[in-house]
């Protein structure tokens, strides 16, 4: 026995005359960052003798703008159900620790992620555990705790969207994200 | 009432009336400014016993925006506890007269009639009355004057009245549910709908993930986790006004909000020491106090109905299991033992039953455990169940489940017999929370 009801009457009620129990819609603010000029000098058009119509070319900073260059890997992967930074990632920790100790003003967010299986909140805690392991590793290499924040995205922001073991492995990850 | 309860019997089949005029409303739905998707609702199963009840055709004008009697029949039918007829299509108003002889010849135990008339100021007056066909007694009724937008609510209140008179349990048809939807990678929303999935409304839209909504006990606020600032932060939002604020926005991750039964305290999970740990703080905001120190993950707190203890999930013994701890310290008691992964506890309003998610092989199943006997019951062996939430009368569990088309909401009666699925085409629906009874619901 199986039956189907399709409820479309409500939208009609809204269209016909409002609702006495309104739920105001809010829009979560989108984080805005001010783009910064990539080259100094181009903006000083008048000083360089260019006309009033000159437009300064501005490049919005990309995600990788801050921190060490792309030659320094910033992701650490974890085995299933594991929260231990494996030895193969020691060079990744070392390179990032070197940058952070040499740039005491630099700040990183360590973003923990998990694969898609299980409770959302529990995965948030698992991702946190991974981010925390990376933070402790960097701390042991001399990085100040005040330069780091370990957070978790759990399974909410998967990089790989599939459901193969390779996708799951890609998502068991901590990203070291340099913040401006 | 007891004589009526004894004479229930099981019917082999029942039909579910379609909402009257649904087809003609489709065009109007497209005109609505809100892009909110409508739920498709599938019901299966019936209760162990069903009460045969007739809901007559109400007298109502053609321009009445909502088919009140049809909504009542659909409510009662969906509960699985009633075999619902429409009295052969005969009109019956709250004036009666009750035709007890005819009703008994149809084996009905009760019958109801009503009317809808236009009232001043664009409002509508809805009246109904219920009769006991066996005792030949008037069981009373309701007279409600409402705006067009609250006509569905009026119908649900009639359903609640009938449900309570005939089962002895308070109904939940007039309550609301909150849930999260995801439509595309950057289109998340927090939504509120009637308990039957109708009347869905956006409360919040965001480009970043939302999760773990939970109602305050008075039904005025929702607490939830939002990633809008680039990390998990616990927000509180007044449902009616839309006013919102971050209540837990500390270094690290902030998640898993839970209200104390009196609404004054919020349990949250913070990572101030690195690990995920449970803290208590005033729900209006303030300084969090760490409940207990552990070297494990402690998360997914939920208060016992007496407010004296918390159920939570911890991996202190290896895999995640459900535990209980008194709020004034004391020893931690392990609740779940079967299986290596038991998470997302939800406690029934009477405090006697815990619903939770248990991994069995590659499946995440919905189970319940009787806290007095430790007897467990499988409620859904589906592959990807999550986030259970009890109806305020404790008779139904609302949860999310994976399907071929993505995530949907499901309900199951606590005896596992009656099920429904609420789905939206092309939209992931998840993280449901069943709202409380309130003075106006």
Q: How would you characterize this protein structure?
A:
The complex is a heterodimer of chains A (180) and B (441). With 180 residues, chain A is an alpha+beta fold. Chain A has helices spanning 9-17, 90-102, 120-140, 165-171, and strands at 2-6, 26-27, 75-77, 107-113, 148-154, 173-179. In chain A, strands 3-6-4-5 form a four-stranded mixed β-sheet. In chain A, helix 3 links the parallel strand 4 and strand 5. In chain A, helix 2 (90-102) crosses helix 3 (120-140). The termini of chain A are far apart. Mean pLDDT of chain A is 79; it is low at 1-20 and 32-49. Chain B is mainly β. Chain B has a five-stranded antiparallel β-sheet with strand order 1-29-28-27-26, with no helix packed on it. A five-stranded mixed β-sheet of chain B has the order 3-2-4-5-6, covered by helices on one side. Chain B has a four-stranded antiparallel β-sheet with strand order 9-8-7-30, with no helix packed on it. The longest helix of chain B has 17 residues, at 151-167. Chain B is globular and about 70 Å long. Chain B starts with a helix and ends in a 7-residue tail after the last strand. At the A-B interface, strand 1, helix 1, strand 2, helix 3 and strand 5 of A face helix 2, strand 1, helix 5 and strand 9 of B. Strand 1 (2-6) of chain A pairs antiparallel with strand 1 of chain B, so a sheet runs across the interface.
List keywords for this structure.
heterodimer, A: 180 residues, alpha+beta, 4-stranded mixed β-sheet, 4 helices, 28% helix, B: 441 residues, mainly beta, 5-stranded antiparallel β-sheet, 5-stranded mixed β-sheet, 11% helix, globular
């Amino acid at each position: 026995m199986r039956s189907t009801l399709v409820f479309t009457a409500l939208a009609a009620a809204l269209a016909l005359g409002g609702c006495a129990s309104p739920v105001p819609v809010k829009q979560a603010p989108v984080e805005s960052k001010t783009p910064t000029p990539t080259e100094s000098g181009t903006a000083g058009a008048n000083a360089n003798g260019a006309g009033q119509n000159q437009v300064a070319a501005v490049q919005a900073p990309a995600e990788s703008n801050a921190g060490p260059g792309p030659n320094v890997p910033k992701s650490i992967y974890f085995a299933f159900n594991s929260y231990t930074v494996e030895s193969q990632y020691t060079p990744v920790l070392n390179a990032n620790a070197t940058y952070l100790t040499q740039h005491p003003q630099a700040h990183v967010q360590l973003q923990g992620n998990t694969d898609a299986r299980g409770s959302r909140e529990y995965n948030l805690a698992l991702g946190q555990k991974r981010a925390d392991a990376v933070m402790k590793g960097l701390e042991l290499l001399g990085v100040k705790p005040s330069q780091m924040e370990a957070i978790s995205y759990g399974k909410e922001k998967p990089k790989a969207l599939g459901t193969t073991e390779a996708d799951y492995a890609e998502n068991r990850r901590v990203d070291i994200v340099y913040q401006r | 009432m007891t004589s009526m309860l004894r004479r229930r019997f099981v019917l082999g089949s029942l039909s579910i009336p379609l909402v009257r005029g649904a087809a003609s409303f489709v065009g109007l739905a497209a005109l609505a400014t809100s892009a909110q998707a409508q739920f498709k609702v599938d019901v299966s199963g019936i209760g162990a016993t069903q009460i045969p009840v007739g809901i007559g055709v109400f007298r109502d004008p053609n321009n009445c925006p909502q088919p009140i009697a049809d909504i009542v029949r659909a409510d009662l039918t969906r509960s699985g506890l009633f075999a619902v007829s429409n009295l052969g299509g005969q009109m019956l108003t709250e004036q009666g007269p009750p035709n007890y002889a005819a009703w008994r010849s149809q084996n009905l135990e009760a019958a109801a009639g009503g009317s809808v008339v236009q009232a001043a100021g664009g409002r509508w007056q809805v009246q109904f009355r219920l009769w006991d066909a066996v005792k030949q007694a008037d069981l009373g009724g309701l007279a409600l004057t409402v705006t067009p937008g609250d006509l569905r609510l009026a119908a649900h209140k009639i359903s609640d009245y009938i449900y309570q008179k005939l089962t002895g349990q308070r109904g939940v048809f007039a309550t609301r549910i909150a849930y999260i939807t995801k439509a595309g990678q950057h289109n998340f929303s927090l939504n509120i709908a009637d308990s039957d999935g109708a009347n869905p409304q956006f409360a919040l839209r965001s480009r970043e993930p939302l999760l773990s909504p939970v109602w305050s006990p008075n039904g005025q606020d929702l607490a939830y986790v939002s990633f809008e600032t680039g990390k998990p932060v616990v927000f509180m939002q007044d449902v009616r006004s839309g006013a919102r604020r971050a209540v837990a926005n500390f270094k690290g991750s902030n998640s898993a909000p839970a209200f104390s039964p009196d609404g004054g305290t919020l349990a949250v999970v913070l990572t101030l020491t690195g690990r995920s740990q449970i803290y208590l703080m005033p729900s209006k905001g303030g300084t969090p106090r760490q409940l207990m120190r552990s070297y494990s993950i402690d998360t997914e707190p939920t208060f016992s109905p007496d407010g004296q203890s918390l159920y939570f999930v911890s991996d202190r013994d290896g895999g995640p299991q459900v535990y209980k701890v008194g709020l004034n310290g004391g020893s931690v008691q392990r609740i779940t033992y079967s299986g290596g992964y038991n998470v997302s506890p939800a406690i029934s309003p009477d405090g006697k039953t815990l619903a939770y998610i248990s991994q069995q092989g590659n499946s995440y199943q919905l189970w319940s455990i009787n806290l007095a006997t430790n007897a467990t019951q499988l409620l859904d062996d589906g592959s990807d169940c999550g986030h259970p939430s009890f109806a305020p009368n404790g008779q139904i569990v609302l949860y999310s489940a994976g399907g071929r088309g993505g995530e949907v909401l499901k309900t199951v009666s606590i005896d596992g017999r009656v099920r429904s699925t609420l789905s939206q085409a092309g939209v992931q629906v998840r993280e449901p929370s069943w709202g409380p009874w309130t003075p106006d619901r």
